[in-house]
Amino acid sequence: MKDLYQKYFPTFQQVQVTTTTNTINALVGGEGPPLLLLHGYPQNLLMWRKVAPSLTANFTVIVSDLRGYGASGKPDTDEQHLPYSKRVMAQDQVDLMIALGHQTFMLAGHDRGARVAHRLALDHANRVIKLIILDILPTLQLYRETDMSFATQYWHWFFLIQPYPLPEMLLGKNVDFMAQAIFAKLLQSGAVTTDVVAAYKKNFSDPKALRASCEDYRAGATIDLVHDEADIDKKILCPTLVLWGAQNPVYQKKEMIKEWQKKAAQVEGQSMNSGHFIAEEVPKDTIQIFEKFLGKRNK
Fold this sequence. Notes:
By secondary structure, the protein is of the alpha/beta class. It is about 45% helix and about 20% strand. The chain has helices spanning about 1-10, 50-55, 85-100, 110-125, 140-145, 150-155, 155-160, 165-170, 175-190, 195-205, 205-220, 225-230, 255-260, 280, 285-295; strands at about 15-20, 25-30, 35-40, 60-65, 105-110, 130-135, 235-245, 265-270.
């Protein structure tokens, strides 16, 4: 993995921060206001390789592996799946930023990382200056509105939440097939390269990583919903930017800004000429929009 870090993040330094319950792996580069970037499934911090290096001109950029992914720790779970709740995963990232000397910071998350970012902005409102959400709607809303179309497009949500060890056993014997199913179009378009997909596959060849990723989704269908129900009327307070892929069929019929206005006090956003993997499919547009929303540093 270090070879890929050097290839795609040549000016970044790797850090591993031990929290009270876990170890979080991250890369840090650049100067200016701190910006934390969180990845999605089934990826790791490499998903920001086309975006993060350019952002270092204006920000101190921290790209981290979520709990259970990449080179971060993969702790044991419990019957409630609490160790993989978005609340606990968010606390990991807060602990990371504090350890790096950042009491407040800007935050962007994609996919599962966006769900962690959403929870972080609710639980630690005093720490998040600005928030960027990439290609999600709130978890509770999606489960409540599940229909045939959503279940078909996001079938993995309902597969990965099955009781241990069913999905782990099936995936563990078919990592190559699963990766091909997810990344085939991105490989064909050049949005993702074979070395990066190989790194994703290598991570998921680890039984602990497979278990952890399933626990992420199991938590999303159980304890996360309990937390979300308890905070049903709580809003994100900081300025929030929502981006979504125009080619993602799940959100084509959704009024994304209106939906997020129910959950955040200050929302703006736009669709992107991409599918789900925005930062890899349209990185130049992503960089420009990030810089406009977050504000370039005065040099």
